[in-house]
Specification:
Blueprint: E1 7-8, E2 11-20, E3 23-30, E4 35-42, H1 44-47, H2 50-64, E5 75-80, E6 86-91, E7 95-97, H3 98-104, H4 111-130, E8 133-134, E9 143-147, E10 155-159, E11 166-167, H5 173-177, E12 182-183, E13 186-187, H6 207-222, H7 232-241, H8 247-250, H9 256-265, H10 276-283, H11 288-296, H12 307-313, H13 318-328, H14 337-344, H15 346-352, H16 355-364, H17 371-386, H18 392-412, H19 415-435, H20 440-459, H21 463-480, H22 485-504, H23 508-526, H24 531-545, H25 551-571, H26 576-595, H27 599-616, H28 624-643, H29 647-667
Antiparallel strand pairs: 1-2, 2-3, 3-4, 4-6, 5-6, 7-9, 8-11, 9-10, 12-13
Length: about 675
């Protein structure tokens, strides 16, 4: 240890602050600039180690990449004295570490305060990761809270001690060589380490830091570490072999969505964890209101005008249907406690876990302005399942609900949020199949999961990956065999999705084969005379019509389909699905007329499709499929206006088309379907 007054270069030692990776840290005084600094000196043993000196230099290099970054300690100098002392000079931070701050809190840390700090750390670490640097020892003791009056809490976290950071350009050999703190071949601090950090050659990804931040956030909210063993390596062993307690039970007042985020951050497999940037974005959401709602368990809705229509739909829908019916029949009502108690009963959960739960939500989805109610009810059911001890029944229920929530996010929210639900369901499916490889229900959900992931990949523009998922979904279904109408419909849907992906990839022949297979399957189901199955059969015919070369027969079929859909609409005028399919019929009829150069009839058909699509989009919640339909019809009308030299109309149509696209792009930048050429 260096004594006070010792000089290292232009710096005079004041006092020892502590020990960091590879050396000791001192408060010092820069006699040139007359300012206080932090001086990190490489230990005498490490000075003789070429690899250690190289790693010390890399720490300096890593930090210099973030000069003036508000969330990273600033490097001021790096040098070696004539007698071989290697040192690093940084700004001297005035404040307390996050570890000290957590210990000094007399009461549990408020949700908003914990999230503010965690989000700021996540934002900083996202920038660090973007520069191809991994910290590998992120923990409360390596985060300093410094004064910043511009921040809500009056403090801001600054990350320091990159002593074992890994720069992406390094070779894999460095993984084994990298530094203190290193115990039993382990790199990092066991209490905040990801499972893979105890495995040689595995600690290479930025998901290590994501895991550490998940533990830090849990510690702030719970007031204690997730794993309390005194032996850090026993904790690492636990993370490989022992499932931790359900986070929702450990943090009962934390919003479900935030608990799910923490669960994803703490996933054992690094590939199942979100990016640091995604963590920061989700932490930025206003969770306080949901936390208050969770504490009070009150949900108020105004939906009287739909009570008559909905009452017909929910007969036989089970407990979830009861919850919806109660909500719809009263303008302001607290959630029925008897229903909550029933949901908490394992036998009830198992017995009511069937397709009627999802069917009820699907049918509500065909009525306008029901999204917020449906989503909250599904989230409520999901929370109750999380707290249940039922094994197989709860597992399948959870998967079904997560799949449905992914649909809601894909259609109304963001692809990232949808992907989180799909990934959560996939983990549960894999876990279940590992215990019961021949479980028919889980294999069915596996096929469903592949289909949903394929849709997300297709929306993100990754057609080849989507093709892979759709093909595997079909293979899983065909291997297990399809017998029921639901199973046949699921296979038909996967075939339609495969056809769409093949069409987008330019393989029209393969797309036609997939469409034909879907039509055959849906025709067999439609023979039951159920209106829904008939509508699904019509949808398959409409999709195939895009590829048909026989214009006359195709347009006749489409007109018959239009009449059939109109008849269905007359029996259920509020049904959005029937109107949506009818709009797609008009769009395809217009496409055929356009190919025939009959622009008048094409315009009439496109305008009919546009009017329906515009009407569908009216309401409280945007629906991406309706938006895409409107964009397509406006695009076709614009092309015709251009051919007819009506450029004023063309400009108006193009502007409206771009406005619709920009609205969705602002909501979800990852959805490439709304990236339109000519829309800046």
């Amino acid at each position: 240890m260096l004594e006070a007054g010792t000089k290292i270069g232009a710096y005079r030692i004041d006092r020892r602050l502590g020990e960091g990776g590879m050396g000791e840290v001192y408060a010092a005084f820069d006699e040139t600039t007359e300012t206080p600094v932090a001086l990190k000196v490489l230990s005498s043993d490490a000075e003789k180690d070429r690899e250690a000196v190289g790693r010390f230099k890399r720490e300096a290099s890593a930090l210099q990449a973030f000069k003036n970054h508000p969330g990273v300690v600033e490097v001021l100098d790096f040098d070696r004295t004539a007698d071989g002392v290697v040192y690093l000079v940084m700004e001297l931070l005035d404040g307390q570490t996050l570890a000290e701050w957590i210990r000094n809190q007399r009461e549990s840390i408020a949700l908003e305060d914990a999230l503010t700090i965690a989000r700021q750390i996540a934002e900083t670490m996202a920038d660090v990761h973007d520069a191809d640097v991994i910290h590998r020892d992120l923990k409360p003791g390596n985060v300093m809270l410094v004064s910043d009056e511009k921040e809500r809490l009056g403090i801001r976290p600054k990350i320091f001690d990159f002593g074992i950071a890994k720069v992406h350009v390094l070779t894999g050999d460095d993984e084994q060589a990298t530094t203190l703190p290193k115990t039993r071949g382990f790199i990092g601090t066991p209490r905040y380490a990801a499972p893979e950090q105890s495995m040689p050659g595995k600690a290479n990804t930025d998901k290590i830091d994501v895991y550490a931040l998940g533990l830090i956030l849990y510690e702030m909210l719970a007031g204690k570490r997730l794993f309390e063993s005194e032996d850090g390596f026993e904790e690492i062993y636990k993370r490989h072999n022992i499932e931790p307690g359900v986070l929702s039970e450990l943090l009962p007042e934390v919003p479900r969505g935030l608990v799910e985020l923490m669960g994803e951050m703490l996933a054992k497999k690094p590939e199942d964890r979100p990016t640091m940037r995604a963590c920061a974005a989700r932490m930025a959401r206003g969770w306080e209101a949901e936390a208050n709602a969770r504490r009070s368990k009150r949900m108020k809705y105004v939906a009287r005008r739909w009570s008559g229509t909905v009452a017909v739909m929910i007969a036989g829908a089970g407990i979830l249907g009861l919850m919806w019916r109660t909500q719809f029949e009263s303008e302001t009502i607290t959630q029925p406690q008897n229903t909550i108690e029933e949901l908490k009963t394992d036998t009830q959960l198992t017995s009511t876990c069937n397709d009627s739960i999802i069917d009820a939500d699907w049918e509500y989805g065909r009525i306008a302005n029901t999204l917020s109610i449906r989503k909250e009810q599904l989230l409520t059911y999901h929370r109750e399942l999380m707290q249940s001890t039922a094994a197989a029944g709860s597992l399948v229920c959870m998967i079904k609900v997560e799949h449905r929530l992914s649909d809601l996010e894909r259609l109304h929210g963001t692809l990232d949020a949808a992907e989180n639900y799909v990934n959560a369901a996939r983990i549960r499916i894999d876990h279940g199949l590992a215990k019961a490889p021949k479980d028919a229900q889980l294999s069915l959900e596996r096929a469903m999961n592949l289909s949903k992931r394929g849709k997300l990949r297709l929306a993100k523009g990754d057609t080849s990956a989507a093709l892979f998922d759709f093909e595997n979904s079909i293979a899983v279904l065909e291997d297990r065999g399809v017998k029921t109408d639901n199973e046949k419909s699921m296979l038909a849907t996967s075939c339609l999705e495969l056809g769409e992906a093949q069409w987008l990839s330019g393989n029209a022949n393969a797309a036609m084969r997939a469409y034909e297979k879907a039509i055959d399957l849906r025709r067999s189901v439609a023979s039951t005379n159920d209106p829904y199955w008939k509508a699904m059969h019509v949808e398959a015919l409409v999709l195939r019509s895009k590829l048909s070369a026989e214009a006359n027969s195709t347009i006749d079929d489409l007109k018959k389909a239009d009449s059939a859909m109109q008849a269905l609409i007359e029996t259920a005028e509020h049904d959005l699905l029937y109107r949506f399919i009818r709009a797609k019929i008009h769009l395809q009829i217009g496409m055929i007329h356009k190919r025939r150069h009959d622009l008048k009839r094409a315009t009439d058909s496109f305008q009919a499709a546009r009017d329906i699509a515009s009407a569908l989009r009216k309401g409280a919640n945007e629906h991406k499929e309706y938006g895409l339909l409107l964009i397509d019809t406006l695009g076709e009308l614009s092309l015709i206006a251009g051919e007819e030299h009506d450029f004023t109309l063309k400009t108006s149509l193009d502007n409206r088309r771009c406005d619709v696209a920009k609205n969705f792009t602002a909501q979800d930048a990852l959805d490439k379907r709304f990236d339109l050429k000519g829309c800046s």
